[in-house]
Amino acid sequence: CLMHEFSCTRGRCVSRHFLCDKIFDCPYGDDESPQVCGKCRFNEYRCKGERKKCISNYFVCDSKADCPVGDDEDSC
Ligand SMILES: [Ca+2]
Ligand SMILES: [Ca+2]
């Protein structure tokens, strides 16, 4: 792949403009994977606030603030 391209698992190259645009451009969608996009995993909650920490869903509504601003306990 070229400098401005992202290499998919199956050796295909896509432009980096297509990364994290919610459309699968790689055959297996790895241009939208959490590792590439820096999002939380499907079983994690994304905290609000500047740091956007990821916590396990297990810690949402456990009566203890795990996010920096405690928003994991806000909508229980
Ligand atoms: Ca994409
Ligand atoms: Ca919590």
From TrEMBL:
GO BP term (any one): vesicle-mediated transport
GO terms for cellular component: endomembrane system; membrane
Localization terms from the record: Endomembrane system; Membrane
Protein name: Uncharacterized protein
SMART domains in the record: LDLa
Broad class of the protein's primary localization: membrane
Chain segments annotated as coiled-coil in the UniProt record: none
Disulfide links within the chain: 1-13, 8-26, 61-76
PROSITE patterns (alphabetical): LDLRA_1, LDLRA_2
Organism: Helobdella robusta
Keyword match Membrane: yes
A Pfam family assignment: Ldl_recept_a
Keywords tagged on the record: Disulfide bond, Membrane, Repeat, Transmembrane, Transmembrane helix
Membrane association type: Single-pass membrane protein
